[in-house]
């Protein structure tokens, strides 16, 4: 790949070049990795920043519908919007690919929009790195907003929150008074809770649910990166396109405040540090699986099993070999 030429085309906002570059960062091949690093290094100099919005919610809550109508609203306002997905359970036949191509039918036809389904890989660590790099590519291509979607199951919310400027939690109206078992840890990551499907028969339930979450948010510890009134809960209808502009205004207000108060840069710096350490960790784990280290590990494991070495002595020896 001609890195210079691809970089220039990406900086021109060429979606085909962007798609090819994302394929490059998704590859695990060593030569591809080297090219990907060179490309990202080259594009970093452009210094472009999008607003990165993480969006999470359980299956069926309306993420795809929301992204379609919210994305179209932003496009109509003159913004360029990229949509990426982190899907740790890509096992489900093509995952977001099939569903989203139909649900985001109109957005995917917009020249100012770019939709990329999640890479199919089982390892969350690998998906995280590739998504992060895809975000950087979209920023270099001049997108104003990058939406990073994830299904709310397990760790993927944390991964997405760690690469987002704003983290939005999409929830469904609850029946009765149960708070849908949203884990406290997830609540603590949210900047905005949107109770979707606030329309028709579900409207009053949505309003009640929203009030419950607003109350729950007030009970959480105050975070340094929030102005008065945030995190916030509000109702939306992705289907009837209600509340979307109000939600966008809240996102802008929060983001503006954070930019003005150093929290935007501070959070990005902290995230970069986190991903650096995470990549080193992943790299070390990968090294344990390869060639010589693998046989070293097998040999030491056999000695531990046979009772000839203690686990900690064997581990110390393995780590020494790894370092050398
Ligand atoms: N009434 C109502 N229904 C909605 C709304 N948003 C989405 N739905 C419906 O909810 C169902 C699921 O919507 P999706 O957008 O596919 O949900 P999702 O979160 O992307 O689901 P997964 O991709 O499976 O995780 C569909 O039948 C939508 O039409 C809404 O605002 N109001
Ligand atoms: Mg979906």
Would you kindly provide a written description of the structure presented here, covering whatever features stand out?
The chain is an alpha/beta fold. It has three domains: 1-46, Up-down Bundle (Single alpha-helices involved in coiled-coils or other helix-helix interfaces), CATH 1.20.5; 48-261, P-loop containing nucleotide triphosphate hydrolases (Rossmann fold, 3-Layer(aba) Sandwich), CATH 3.40.50.300; 276-323, no CATH class. Helices cover 56% and strands 12% of the residues. It has 14 helices and seven strands. The protein has a seven-stranded parallel sheet with strand order 3-2-4-1-5-6-7, with helices on both faces. Strand 5, helix 9 and strand 6 (192-195) form a beta-alpha-beta unit. Helix 1 packs across helix 3, helix 2 packs antiparallel against helix 7 (124-140) and helix 13 runs antiparallel to helix 14. The structure holds guanosine-5'-triphosphate and magnesium ion (MG). Residues 49-221 form the AAA+ ATPase domain.
């Amino acid at each position: 790949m001609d890195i210079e030429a691809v970089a220039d085309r990406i900086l021109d906002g060429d979606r085909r070049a962007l798609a090819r570059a994302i394929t490059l960062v998704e590859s695990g091949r060593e030569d591809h990795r080297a090219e990907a690093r060179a490309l990202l290094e080259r594009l970093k100099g452009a210094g472009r920043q999008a607003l990165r919005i993480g969006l999470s919610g359980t299956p069926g809550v309306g993420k795809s519908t929301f992204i379609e109508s919210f994305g179209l609203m932003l496009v109509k306002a003159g913004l360029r919007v990229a949509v990426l997905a982190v899907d740790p359970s890509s096992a489900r036949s093509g995952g977001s690919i099939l569903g989203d191509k139909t649900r985001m039918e109109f957005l995917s036809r917009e020249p100012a929009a770019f939709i990329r389904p999640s890479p199919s890989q089982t390892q969350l660590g690998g998906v995280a790195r590739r998504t992060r790099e895809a975000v950087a590519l979209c920023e270099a291509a001049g997108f104003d907003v990058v939406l990073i979607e994830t299904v709310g199951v397990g760790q993927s919310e944390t991964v997405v929150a760690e690469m987002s400027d704003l983290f939005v939690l999409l929830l469904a109206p609850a029946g009765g008074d149960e708070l849908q078992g949203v884990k406290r840890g997830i609540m603590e990551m949210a900047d905005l809770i949107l109770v979707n499907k606030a329309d028709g028969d579900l409207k009053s339930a949505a309003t009640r649910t929203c009030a419950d979450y607003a109350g729950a948010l007030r009970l959480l510890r105050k975070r340094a990166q929030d102005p008065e009134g945030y995190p916030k809960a509000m109702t939306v209808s992705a289907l009837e396109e209600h509340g979307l502009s109000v939600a966008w205004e809240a996102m802008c207000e929060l983001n503006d405040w954070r930019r003005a108060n150093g929290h935007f840069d501070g959070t990005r710096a902290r995230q970069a540090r986190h991903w650096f350490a995470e990549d080193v960790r992943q790299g070390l784990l990968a090294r344990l699986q390869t060639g010589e280290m693998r046989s070293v590990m097998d040999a030491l494991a056999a000695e531990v099993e046979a009772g000839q070495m203690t686990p900690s002595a064997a581990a110390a020896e393995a780590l020494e070999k790894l370092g050398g």
